[in-house]
User: What shape does this take?
Amino acid sequence: MRRLLLTLSILTLLASCKSDKKDNTTSIEKELSIAEEIANANGFEHWKDVSQIEFTFNVDRDTTHFERSWSWKPKTGDVTLISGNDTISYNRKSVDSTSLNADKNFINDKYWLLAPYQLVWDDIDFTSIPMVAAPISKMLMNKLTVTYSDEGGYTPGDAYDFYFDKDYIIKEWVFRQGNVKEPSMMTTWEDYEDFNGLKLAKTHKKPEGNWKLHFTNIKVTK
Assistant: This one.
């Protein structure tokens, strides 16, 4: 009996040691890229649950106003555009000559709203520089430059400089058409709001002139 108890004790000890060894093994998590950090800071983890997003894209320039509204179902690819008296519905998997211009506008407007997510979705090259003067505020921020391929897409070869704070929230950006050195456009990123988990910037302003691009009627459905 004593020998049996001793054997059981040894087996229990070995099992305990094996269990402790397993519990003490720390899994090595993949380090996130800056692009992934920016996307996550804007609620990217909630995107997988989104069934529909609606928004109105507005541009105010001096006394003129322009707008167009969108409904997008990302899981199916269905898109509806409402602009003035016109309504166009199509699926992004089957864009043809009748929906091509609408899709170009959709890609543009969606990029303004969801650029932090596009950093993860798109096949682009990245370079980053810490603590540089932002072009509008002149405040020190981190800079991420993304460059698109010269082939494919509606605007190949373009580049963007994103300026973001320590929390990975974009504050300003510069658009450089065709990856030219000088800015083609620069605006602020402001007026952030949470829409069902998605943290979106509603307003963009140029440093000069009376110009504002902003979003209204944003609705996120899961």
Remarks:
- The longest strand covers residues 211-221.
- The helical segments are 2-23, 34-41, 100-121.
- The chain has one domain: 32-221.
- The mean pLDDT is 89.
